[in-house]
Amino acid sequence: MQTREEALNKLERSRFRSSFHLKDADIAYIDEKGWDTIEKHARDFVRERLAPAYPEKDGKQTPMKGHPVFLAQHACACCCRGCLEKWYKVEQGRPLSEVQQEKIVRLLMAWIQRDYNRRKMSSPRIIKP
Fold first, then answer.
1. pTM, whole model, 2 decimals?
2. Residue 97 has pLDDT above 70, yes or no
């Protein structure tokens, strides 16, 4: 079983997965709402859109923009059940357990925090609201 850090490093080696990055609006949203709210949203999105055995519109349920968690889901291959199976061997057709959901949320938050910190370090023009 790979660690969260190993998973993030593996995702960074994927041309597609590594193409996702937080935008200025995402950074501002995180600064405005705070980390607890972002984590709550991640939990809600995972529980409602990913955890069911057969999610509604599976494969198309996660927008490509509009929320930091959506970007993280694509960057971490946690956007649909097909990607979860391909990248993490999470069998489709079974609901995600509480433990699986928690691992996904932790991975998403780790990605968001990593990208957020990189953006803040490299882009002094990002201004807190």
1. 0.91
2. yes
